[in-house]
Amino acid sequence: MSHNIVLLPGDGIGAEVIYAAKDVLEAISKKYNRTFRFSSYDIGGVAIDQHGTPLPDETVEACKQADAVLLGAVGGPKWDNNPSDLRPERGLLGIRKALDLYANLRPVKGFPKLLHASPLKEEIIQGSDLLIVRELTGGLYFGQPSERIDNGNAVVDTLSYTKKEMERIIDKAFQSATLRNNHLTSVDKANVLESSKLWREIVEAKKAEYPDVTVDHVLVDAAAMKLITNPTQFDVIVTENMFGDILSDEASVLTGSLGMLPSASLAEDGVGLYEPAHGSAPDIAGQGIANPIAMILSSAMMLRYSFDMNQEADAIEVAVESVLNQNYHTADLKNEQGALVNTSEMTDLIVKAI
Amino acid sequence: MSHNIVLLPGDGIGAEVIYAAKDVLEAISKKYNRTFRFSSYDIGGVAIDQHGTPLPDETVEACKQADAVLLGAVGGPKWDNNPSDLRPERGLLGIRKALDLYANLRPVKGFPKLLHASPLKEEIIQGSDLLIVRELTGGLYFGQPSERIDNGNAVVDTLSYTKKEMERIIDKAFQSATLRNNHLTSVDKANVLESSKLWREIVEAKKAEYPDVTVDHVLVDAAAMKLITNPTQFDVIVTENMFGDILSDEASVLTGSLGMLPSASLAEDGVGLYEPAHGSAPDIAGQGIANPIAMILSSAMMLRYSFDMNQEADAIEVAVESVLNQNYHTADLKNEQGALVNTSEMTDLIVKAI
Ligand SMILES: CC(C)[C@H](C(=O)O)[C@@H](O)C(=O)O
Ligand SMILES: CC(C)[C@H](C(=O)O)[C@@H](O)C(=O)O
């Protein structure tokens, strides 16, 4: 049985890190006798340049046929002043919608060796290990109307959700909590938004199905504070799309390991898309110095979630940890001790450790 | 000439801190020969209990007649399960709208003596001094429709703004930047939201009127990261209501001085409302141990913005700083050295220092 993986390198450092992840997957394939087939398609800025659209039909088709998708990153200054429909981000939003990737899972966990790089004091960040479950295909990102009104003198965006959309992401988060420490924090703005009130009702109703899970409700503004003052209080956080965008980026810098954080975007019964939490980093693109670890750990998430290959996923995670424990680091990690390595050296070290 | 100040103590520690601020204002009145007249009205939970509504008409009327309003805090577990229109927060949202308090100014500045309480490493937080200018009467908080649709199977909230509403807050922020370090960071989500695109256009257009101000545009998710990794890069941040709610609370915990942070909510030509950045803290209410400094500094903002009494405002700020420098602190500040004092002792110390 072979697994068909679509690679979407995208822009900036996207290609550099995605081919690093491919190397690691090939090492896994040899060691565990697995067959992965890879094909590459364009998305984002590079797709605008090549095909006149950030999301060519053939890319969507290939992803729909695939067993899983790896995405590098999209965007860059070159396309920043393009009209909306010719912006790289449209490719990302488009593929999320096309594949119905409603559940974005973002684990945030500090590597003991890297905690020194955290902006937080060590006693605050130590021991933090959380998972943000963000709704990814609804809310303000996709609601209609989203347009100028009143002859251009006013503007409107729409935060809309169906009950079903809320239910499936909340259910996913409860499930995730049972696989971790049975603690779910639901984040909303129920003291102001009608959508948040419905959200909270659904969370409350779901509790009955997951009696082992302890549930807190936290307002989004308070959550933004607590992530900083007491990140260890969280296990799984679930929230809607826009709040999740803000809080997951906020959380991503807490451990000092942004270049290490993977993410998974999952459909109900379909394909999963895996990408690093970081962006396309145009400032260092093409130099071969990007940290490939977030992308490599994203491919480990793919093995775990899409292919049920837990042993293989573990092997990647253990290899990464062991290389870091030997004090190897890429330029972003600003480690004073140890050896500075570039993208391909880091990748080789991880491959060897596997 | 006398100044007519309406006090809205509200719930929890609200009353304790507001009467502390009144004591300080009375000391100012003696020293500088100013006449302040005070009257108190109900808002929030206490108003629900006394009048059956979180915002009685007489409260609105009194505020409209006042020269300035001081607000303690609203909310508490007692009213948490009330229906929407009988929740304390409705009083706050209602008074903002009734007085057209469109501009919420939230300075965040660390006190050197208190930086040890910051969750951030000292080298990161040191020197940070920023002002968040949040739009307070538009966006998702007030947009219509905000309701269940499709027989309760879906829900919608509306993020709406007129160009005028955006222009006045953006103008206020540019003005604020000229009074500080001439650096304005506009925060939006222009890669996704139509409202953010209009927002960004207006910021760009305004630049011409303020040639000395340097302007950056930062996406809200990136802003949530940068506040933590590099808070000193900011001077004035301007953003819409919901983003401002999240980012200003996030920013409020950075310096370790949440109990010290004031805020001002201003109308175009009308009255200003001043309140601490912290909430009603029901857990410590009634014990007389709340930190009154945020409220006292809010009254200093009132003197400065509403009454043009800069010398008097300075006197309060200097007095607070000198008491802190003597290592006096309330229980929230967790200072190991120095003397622990309660609300009234802290207030007396500040009064004496004036
Ligand atoms: C690029 C942008 C549209 C996207 C989002 O806001 O969802 C990104 O910030 C993310 O979090 O994946
Ligand atoms: C109480 C609540 C409605 C309010 C808001 O969200 O505006 C509060 O969080 C604030 O920031 O003043």
UniProtKB/TrEMBL annotation, chains A, B:
<keyword id="KW-0464">Manganese</keyword>
<keyword id="KW-0520">NAD</keyword>
<feature type="binding site">
    <location>
        <begin position="279"/>
        <end position="291"/>
    </location>
    <ligand>
        <name>NAD(+)</name>
    </ligand>
</feature>
<dbReference type="Pfam" id="PF00180">
    <property type="entry name" value="Iso_dh"/>
</dbReference>
<feature type="binding site">
    <location>
        <position position="249"/>
    </location>
    <ligand>
        <name>Mg(2+)</name>
    </ligand>
</feature>
<feature type="binding site">
    <location>
        <position position="96"/>
    </location>
    <ligand>
        <name>substrate</name>
    </ligand>
</feature>
<comment type="pathway">
    <text>Amino-acid biosynthesis; L-leucine biosynthesis; L-leucine from 3-methyl-2-oxobutanoate: step 3/4.</text>
</comment>
<feature type="binding site">
    <location>
        <position position="221"/>
    </location>
    <ligand>
        <name>Mg(2+)</name>
    </ligand>
</feature>
<feature type="site" description="Important for catalysis">
    <location>
        <position position="141"/>
    </location>
</feature>
<feature type="site" description="Important for catalysis">
    <location>
        <position position="189"/>
    </location>
</feature>
<keyword id="KW-0479">Metal-binding</keyword>
<comment type="function">
    <text>Catalyzes the oxidation of 3-carboxy-2-hydroxy-4-methylpentanoate (3-isopropylmalate) to 3-carboxy-4-methyl-2-oxopentanoate. The product decarboxylates to 4-methyl-2 oxopentanoate.</text>
</comment>
<feature type="binding site">
    <location>
        <begin position="76"/>
        <end position="89"/>
    </location>
    <ligand>
        <name>NAD(+)</name>
    </ligand>
</feature>
<dbReference type="InterPro" id="IPR019818">
    <property type="entry name" value="IsoCit/isopropylmalate_DH_CS"/>
</dbReference>
<feature type="domain" description="Isopropylmalate dehydrogenase-like">
    <location>
        <begin position="4"/>
        <end position="350"/>
    </location>
</feature>
<keyword id="KW-0100">Branched-chain amino acid biosynthesis</keyword>
<dbReference type="InterPro" id="IPR004429">
    <property type="entry name" value="Isopropylmalate_DH"/>
</dbReference>
<keyword id="KW-0028">Amino-acid biosynthesis</keyword>
<keyword id="KW-0560">Oxidoreductase</keyword>
<keyword id="KW-0432">Leucine biosynthesis</keyword>
<feature type="binding site">
    <location>
        <position position="245"/>
    </location>
    <ligand>
        <name>Mg(2+)</name>
    </ligand>
</feature>
<dbReference type="GO" id="GO:0003862">
    <property type="term" value="F:3-isopropylmalate dehydrogenase activity"/>
</dbReference>
<keyword id="KW-0460">Magnesium</keyword>
<comment type="subunit">
    <text>Homodimer.</text>
</comment>
<comment type="similarity">
    <text>Belongs to the isocitrate and isopropylmalate dehydrogenases family. LeuB type 1 subfamily.</text>
</comment>
<feature type="binding site">
    <location>
        <position position="106"/>
    </location>
    <ligand>
        <name>substrate</name>
    </ligand>
</feature>
<keyword id="KW-0963">Cytoplasm</keyword>
<feature type="binding site">
    <location>
        <position position="134"/>
    </location>
    <ligand>
        <name>substrate</name>
    </ligand>
</feature>
<protein>
    <recommendedName>
        <fullName>3-isopropylmalate dehydrogenase</fullName>
        <ecNumber>1.1.1.85</ecNumber>
    </recommendedName>
</protein>
<feature type="binding site">
    <location>
        <position position="221"/>
    </location>
    <ligand>
        <name>substrate</name>
    </ligand>
</feature>
<dbReference type="InterPro" id="IPR024084">
    <property type="entry name" value="IsoPropMal-DH-like_dom"/>
</dbReference>
